[in-house]
Amino acid sequence: MKRDNLAAETNRLLTKVEARHELEQSLMKVYEALKIAYITLGYSQLQSQASTVGPFDARVRPRSVMGVLVPEIVAGKMPAITSVTNASAYTAAEKLTALMRELLDITEAEGRIEIIAQELMLTNRKVNALERVIIPKLQEMIRYIDGRLEEETLEEFFRAKRVKAVIRGQTG
Q1: What is the CATH classification number for the domain harbouring 84?
Q2: Is residue 162 a part of any domain in this protein?
Q3: What is the C-alpha separation between 83 and 144, in angstroms, rounded?
Q4: What is the pLDDT of residues 58-108, one digit of tens each?
Q5: For residue 111, is it within any domain?
Q6: Considering its fold, how many domains does the chain have in total?
Q7: pTM confidence score
Q8: How far apart are CA 85 and CA 52, in angstroms?
């Protein structure tokens, strides 16, 4: 059950990760906007504009999926970019801010997939060991015990018959 649930979770996460190609294209557009801002402002002015924007608030906390701890990213408030005064820098900041939640979602999904894949490998090893070694040994032991019980039952039956025959022979 654990293996099946982890595989289902992985498949669900893979659908999220499929959007990565589109995100990469969007990030390339942001990079182009950032290059334009860099060309127009220069390094120090662009850094000055960027320093006016507050940090992005996000926390990573553990979440359990079938006993496996996977990361969950909780995004806080988005930074205010209204303090950016240059148009090209504002455009780059606006595009990047719009992609942050999607970027965090894909990052979270990739992190979960990696951890779940490792757990799936361990679980598969355990299941294989159970199916190929432990369960066959236990089944063989059950067959042996059944055979021994059957032999003992037959022996007891024959003893009971002999005792009956001896008792009949003494009374008859």
Answers
A1: 1.10.287.3240
A2: no
A3: 81
A4: 899 999 988 889 999 998 888 888 888 889 999 999 999 889 989 999 999
A5: yes
A6: 1
A7: 0.69
A8: 10
